[in-house]
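Researcher: I'd like a structural prediction for the single chain below. Treat it as a standalone chain; there are no partners to consider.
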Amino acid sequence: MCDPIPGRESVQGPVHVPVLLGPVLDYLDLRPGLVVVDGTVGAGGHAQHILERIQPGGRLIGLDRDPMMLAHARHALTQPDRYLLQASYAELARVLSGLGMTAIDRLLLDLGLSSDQLADASRGFSFDSNGPLDMRFDTSHGPTAADVINRLPEVELARILFEYGDERHSRRIARRIVAARPLRTAAALADLVRRAVPRPRGRQRIHPATRVFQALRIAVNDELDALRTLLHDQLPRVLRTGGRAVVISFHSLEDRIVKQAFRDRECWESLTRKPVVADEAEIRANPRSRSAKLRAAVSKGQQTT
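Model: Treating it as a single chain, here is the predicted structure.
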């Protein structure tokens, strides 16, 4: 997928470009007959190439919490040997049980936000969106980003911005948010943050609200706990010995969780001493890939603690 830097909203149909496609396929080491889970199938960018390489006899299980992205995936992936389900990768063991399966050979996670999600004005992921400030992957339940910023006490709001966004101006921004409540749109929140933080010297590569939007999205979707649950509980139960896991992250919080999990030598043989990143050609073609970090490991078949 891509990192959480906003795009424009005048897009129809899937626009997503899969990140680090070559390294993903190399580290997955695919062959016919394998059972592969794409835990964040999105619009099916990686999954299309995976399906081609595991035929004949292979099966792809694509999960996503976002029904809009699953609709894109169903349009892109028409082969019979694929299962597309609305579910979190943190529920992997339950999903497999429902399909009558107990084990898989490969897992891919691409933890970035899709260009298609950014392009949807009704979701509130993009800084210039005048639609509702939602940010939920599954819009059918749970608090929205607007609920978070308009209801939480200032201290708790500052904690979320600091812990999940590494935002050093978290207290100042939280204070400004509380004073301006209610805030209803992504554009209004982005403008408030832009006015609240000091302008950096020199050229600024990212929007000043990037860390705030990241923190709110993580909090709304409980993303870090889901990642920990998968790596420490679900995956060791279902990934066969010798099976491979490939994870692409887009910020330090996610990458730290993945790195620490794959350092458990009783459970994993790490294939990437340092994270794999996009080369200059890919960054030029897809600027959002500049934040992507890929880590891969082979299962030793040991349950983690």
